[in-house]
Write a structure and sequence with these properties.
The protein is α+β, with helices and mostly antiparallel strands. The chain has 4 helices and 6 strands; from the N terminus they run αββααββαββ. A two-stranded antiparallel ribbon has the order 1-6. The chain has a two-stranded antiparallel ribbon with strand order 2-5.
Length: 91
Amino acid sequence: MSLDKKLYTLKYSPDIKSHLKPDKNQCKICESKNCTYICPAKVYEWNDETKELIVNYENCLECGACRIACERKSLDWQYPKGTKGVTFKKG
């Protein structure tokens, strides 16, 4: 089964506030933009026009790859509250 098909089987219950809080000033000076390609769920997108990082936190798999890959170490990453976030099903 492809990664995209596996991701489709996940259940999400996103919070109204993001648990991913990058320092957007640091993102502007980041050269690699590692988060935009290291994340398996494609949570991060760089907008060249606005020079802004877009965070689609609702799709987060909570793997933590982004905080490890962040070259500026500027990502405040917390697990979502209580019953919020991703739910994995056996399959």
